[in-house]
Amino acid sequence: MFLPPLYAELGIELAVVGSIFLLARVWDGLTDPLLGVLADRFGGRFGRRQPWVIGSVPILCFAIYRVFVPPAEPSAAYLLGWLLVLYVGWTMLTISHAAWASALSEDYDERSRIMGGVQALGLLGSLSVLVVAAARGRRRFGSSPGTARCVGSSRPTS
To answer: How far is CA 8 from CA 2, 4, 16, 72, 92, in A?
Structure first.
């Protein structure tokens, strides 16, 4: 929601930005099973899942910074490269986190409760972010009818 207009304002055509996001999502679809298999086969002193979760943090932090704080004139290759890195970090985190949560118990019912709790808390967190952003935007920008809304930002329509 925020990135395509940002990169369009910085000089990359919106159609190119959309194509880059499509390529990044295809990349994500290819890396999910690959990293899942690697994580399943990985075994170390700290367990099978924890190193992947911990390893994803610096990758995600750096990639998020590079994607959301681009140089003054980013290229399409810049955006594509950092989105690919971002999605690898995200895959490392989410695949390992989900597998780790399901491996916490041998009991089927308890695993179901754990995963249900993980999903419920994730949904609650997502809704909280939206509510806070909407409340903050309303207080900051008012509610004039000439303003188009998206979460966390405001753009005049005229």
So the answer is: 10, 6, 9, 12, 29
Based on the fold, state whether residues 60 and 44 are members of the same structural domain. Answer: yes
Q: What is the pLDDT of residues 97-142, one digit of tens each?
A: 888 877 788 888 998 898 899 889 989 999 999 998 888 876 655 5
Question: What is the model's pTM?
Answer: 0.74
- Share above pLDDT 70 across residues of the chain, in percent, rounded to a whole number: 86
Q: Count up the domains in the chain and report the number.
A: 2
Residue 86: which domain range?
1-103
Whether residues 56 and 122 share a domain: the answer is no
Tell me, letter by letter, the H, E, C secondary structure of the chain: CCHHHHHHHCCCCHHHHHHHHHHHHHHHHHHHHHHHHHHHHCCCCCCCCHHHHHHHHHHHHHHHHHHHCCCCCCCHHHHHHHHHHHHHHHHHHHHHHHHHHHCCCCCHHHHHHHHHHHHHHHHHHHHHHHHHHHHHHHHHHCCCCCEEEECCEEEECC
Q: How far apart are CA 133 and CA 128, in angstroms?
A: 8
Is it the case that residue 152 has pLDDT exceeding 80? no
